[in-house]
Amino acid sequence: MKNRITTPLSRRNLKPSLKQQNLLSRGGRAVQTSLIFILKQAAAMFNPRKKNTRKGKKQKQPRKGKVSMYAHGRSVFSRKRALQDDVVKPWAAVGTWFIGPKAENADVFKNLMVDAIDSHLNFRQSFYPCDPPYVTEELRQAESFKISFARMKTELEKMQKDMQKSVPFFSTRYKGHVNWDTAVPANLGYIASILWNQNNCAAEGGPVTTSYEIEATGDLCEMIGLKREDSMGHLTAGGSVANIEAIWVARNLKYYPLGLQEALLKDEQLRKARGYEVYLPQKGSTIPLVNATQWELLNLDTDSIVKMPFDVPELAGLDQGSFRNIMSNYLYESIGAQEFCSRHMLTKSPCVVASSTYHVSFLKAVTIVGLGKECLVTVPVDKNARMDTDILEKMLLHKLLNEIPVICVISILGSTEESAVDPLEDILAIRTKLSKKGLNFNIHADAAWGAYFSCMLREPPKGDIMPSTEEEGFVPELFLNRHVTNQLKVLNQCDTITVDPHKSGFCPYPAGAICYRNKNLNNFLSVSSGVVYYHGDYTLGDVGIEGSKPGAAASGVLLANKVIGLHKNGYGRILSECMFTSKILYCYWVCLAEDFDNFVVETTKALPSGKVPVGPNSSEKIDYVTFIRNNILGKTNEELAENDFLMAFLREIGPDTLIPCFSVNIRGNEDVNQCNAIISAIFNDLCHTTTEESEQRIPMIVTSSTMQDHKYSSTLEHFKERLGLSTKNKDGVKYIITTCLDPWSSSMDFMDDLAAIMRNTVLNAIGTVTDTPDCHSFVSTDVVNADKEVFVSYAGNFKQTQHQYFAVARFRFLSDDDVATFNATVQKSTPIVLRNIQSEPKRLHDLLFNDSDEERLSEKFDFFVGLPTESSVPFMTADMKIVDVPRYDHFDVADDQYPDSATYILYGDVGNAYLFHTPTKDPDYLQIVRLTEVPKGLGDSTEKAVILKQGVDAELLGVPGAPTVQDGKIVDPLTDPKYKINFVGIQGEEVTTGVVVQKKIWFDGEVLNKSQ
In the chain, N or C: fewer CB atoms in 10 Å? Predict the structure, then answer.
């Protein structure tokens, strides 16, 4: 698998201020306070003796040049705000809550981690200190001990190397799934507990961590607005398990009254309770439960049912154990579906209702609890990907008229693909309305993604150590739109709620959770007659799906709760910064395509219809895209934050919860297959698989999904219309997902880089799909290195569509004889040019990156002296493996200005360093230069090898960015052997150093600009 692409650094971004200081390394008051707080909380929780005690010119639109995704040395926060020392900087605390994308907090994290491990090791030594040791010095000297230790070390090193192929969730480059870096306190809590290996299945398996789980989930209940004393929750392996549990409890709850009625009528031990009454909203009165109809019993409200296991045995004069033994003969979950339905003559299958954006776990749930996939009824979504509650009400009325039991209605509070929040307010109102007509059901909120956004609405506790005012930073709740705010405020009215600390809570896996509005709901899941989990009991394994549960997960969640805080100044601040990023990125996506481009970009959530006022008190209106280009893009954070009108605008547009999505189509194309092919090409170039080592060639990591048709919804049709696609068929449309779950991407320059990367990827993807297959020429360097590799530059052309690319790559010979022939020829003549054989014309992308055939190890190239013509004859044909492609850029008509200085790519190995000229716009030139030695300033030997292997953009000071023209021809601008180059090196340090040209291998100012 060949390494993926990256995008080079624009010279406009090459000079970050060396005075600019990164908040992650600053000793600001908020940073210091937060670190102290982490230390105190960690000590309190895990002491074994204590059980629980440029600021460049403003730009109106994104740079369309080729820029790096991460401008080294740039502050992750707004520079103006970062350099102010007279404010508290509450956002700086966020810097202590993560290790940092460049491991900026490595020392702090390692020290705290070592403290946690030492604490555990010290406890082992002090536990019955007079017990003799087992691993003695004599044992350590045994040969088998040494062999085993060596094997462990070797295998661990192999594993560590393999893990470097993992997805870099910690990076600001990651914009894929709903996942990002894990918080330092969550990691420390997990690590501090993992050596203790506590099991939260039962109190005796993990007394401390079980209490942590109860406390942590109590915090989560309060976070979503539940009262701690009335509610309860517990951790799960993930949101899927929580969702399955919610359907399980809803099913048991639905059928409980029928089983109880049968028990009251048949069991003499319950005769004293036969007068037990239930309230029927449709009648506005109570009746004895034994007199209720089957349909009435299937539609009692949740709280009425939850009381029954307590009220009935009290009336009957029985203890809980005896009552449960009686009920085991009558309940659905005890006697099974067939027997229960036969006894009660139930012939109509019940249903579970969810929006069409439901998570796959609900399909698993209805299957696991025995309801079947057909019982999952989906409600279409509106243009904002939110449940269409008008259709929901009609569907529920149909169930009412046909007496089909509704077990549960599921509200998605933050879909993980469309980023949508269902209108929970309306769903609750519909239940209230229909309950008066005789239809009732549980409401479950799948807030695995969205629950933590409630922190943006919660005030911090009094005396919070990190005060925030509008002057000191952004107001967290400013970036929740009105719709999401209103839904989160009624989240506490749901019967069950799924929460995922390992999503927007930044906790390590596994850390899902389920919260119950009424703590006694959990009683309906108990499978043991001996022990029931009521809030406060320590036996968690008797209810829920899981048995053994990692105590470490509970420790991680709890420490994160305590250190970060479930309020505006804690998780609210993190998510508000992420929200700001998502809104700005959404603005970039809607403006990505220019009027002169051959493609269009449409976000899944469209901009509002109509026009927007140009100002708060203006009657003049303009279209939304123009408004965004004029007022949002290119502004600093301060300029936006100080403008209430713009902040209100940002608040209401874009995604509900951090995930702007979009699709791309070629103007005039109506074929959905071609549109989907472009999206697939974008995804393939910006995805990370488990089988490849990224080599840092994926400049931005995204994911994708497909918008499918629903028989009751016109959402897909409207999306197709906006993209210009035919609506005659029902084929789904693919789209790109860009999740903004990192709080670092808050500077406008940074967002500008992301937009430039995506624009280049879109242009490349269109070429991947539409370019005409052809032969492609690559000019090589003149030295074969020890790995039998040569470096090459693609001989592109501004005017020929299939050749409108700039690329640099590393090719490897597979035969020593071919190396010998190459060396013999290159000593006589240069440049040597490689061209894929004429019998196999290909698109450039397919040639460089074709991954369809995993067994294909090489490409066949003809070798020429000089650029070949029709009459040229190759001096050899050889198989070459394409090892690395550090640059693959599509020429862009939006690049309308030359840089101030000539831009080159410094690329090579520790033996030879080369400069490859980067063309900007027509006309320009291509050039390869070998230097006498590797430039100074690249760091030590290891760092030097990394930078040369990665490739770095450098400007040649004193050499103009525009081509030099003499007598109407573009000529070589390098007239001297010595030059100063400027580039950004290790850790973002700006380097200016001297280079000496040893050999000019190739210069071309004609072929690049030649018409067909």
Answer: C
* CA distance linking residue 410 with residue 829, whole number of Å: 72
- Residues contacting residue 132 through CB under 8 Å, at least 6 positions apart: none
Residue 58 Rama label (left phi>0; alpha psi -120 to 50; beta): beta
Tell me if residue 674 falls in helix, strand or coil.
helix
How far apart, in whole angstroms, are the C-alpha atoms of residue 199 and residue 203?
8
Return the closest-CA partner of residue 218 out of 493, 496, 516, 509: 516
Matching residue, tokens 């596994």: 510
Q: Which residue has the higher pLDDT, 843 or 41?
A: 843
Which residue from 365, 362, 400, 402 is spatially nearest to 378, judged by alpha carbons? 362
CA separation for the pair 597, 61 (Å, rounded): 15
Neighbours of 874 (CB within 10 A): 17
What does the pLDDT look like over 635-663, one tens digit per residue? 887 788 888 899 999 999 999 999 999 99
- Please report how many Cα atoms fall inside a 13 Å half-sphere around the Cα of residue 941, on the Cβ side: 1
Note whether 304 and 435 are within 8 A (CB): no
Q: For position 881, what pLDDT does the model report?
A: 94
Strand residues in 104-236 grouped as ranges (E): 232-236
Q: Which residue has the tokens 């789209």?
A: 735
Give per-residue pLDDT as tens, 721-773.
999 999 999 999 999 999 998 887 667 777 888 899 999 999 999 999 999 99
Question: What is the signed CA dihedral for 362, 363, 364, 365, rounded to 10 degrees?
Answer: 50
Q: What is the pLDDT of residue 91?
A: 60
How far, CA to CA in Å, does 935 sit from each of 188, 262, 983?
41, 87, 11
Using alpha carbons, select from 550, 552, 549, 447 the residue that is nearest to residue 494.
Answer: 447
The residues, ordered by sequence, that sit 6+ positions from 997 with a Cβ below 8 Å of its Cβ are 929, 930, 931, 932, 974, 977, 978, 979
Q: Could you tell me where the DSSP H helices lie in 591-617?
A: none
Continuous H helices in 698-836: 715-723, 748-770, 816-826
Residue 819 in contact with residue 784, Cβ under 8 Å?
Answer: yes
* Side-chain-facing half-sphere of 631: CA atoms under 13 Å: 23
Token pair in block for residue 613: 């006022």
How high is the pLDDT of residue 206?
Answer: 86
CA 687 centroid distance within chain = 12
Whether the CB-CB separation of 125 and 501 falls below 8 Å is answered with no
Percent of the chain with pLDDT over 70: 86
pLDDT in tens, 598-617: 999 999 999 998 999 998 88
Q: 387-424: string of b/e by CB count within 10 Å (b at 16+)?
A: bbbebbbebbeebbeeebbbbbbbbbbbbbbbbbbbbb
Q: Which two tokens stand for residue 291?
A: 């007199």
Pairing of the two strands 599-603 and 512-516: unpaired
CA dihedral sign, ordered 770, 776, 779, 781: positive
Q: 707: which strand partners? A: 733
Count CB neighbours of 707 within 10 A. Answer: 20
Amino acid at the residue 337: A
pLDDT at 472 over 50: no
Which tokens is 341 given?
């339905």
Distance between CA atoms of 925 and 970, rounded to whole angstroms?
7
- Whether the CB-CB separation of 699 and 136 falls below 8 Å is answered with no
For residues 779 and 791, give the distance between their C-alpha atoms in angstroms, rounded to a whole number.
8
Band of pLDDT at residue 466, cut at 50, 70 and 90: low
CB–CB of 756/7 below 8 Å?
A: yes
CA distances from 661 to 273, 546, 737, 765, 774 (A): 57, 35, 5, 17, 34
Crossing angle between the packed helical segments 207-223 and 551-564, to the nearest 10 degrees: 50
Q: What is the pLDDT averaged over residues 361-366? A: 96
The DSSP bridge pattern shows strands 406-412 and 351-355 to be: parallel
Q: Which two tokens stand for residue 607?
A: 């901009």
Q: Which of 46-60, 297-311, 571-585 is predicted least confidently?
A: 46-60
Pairing of strands 952-960, 901-908: antiparallel
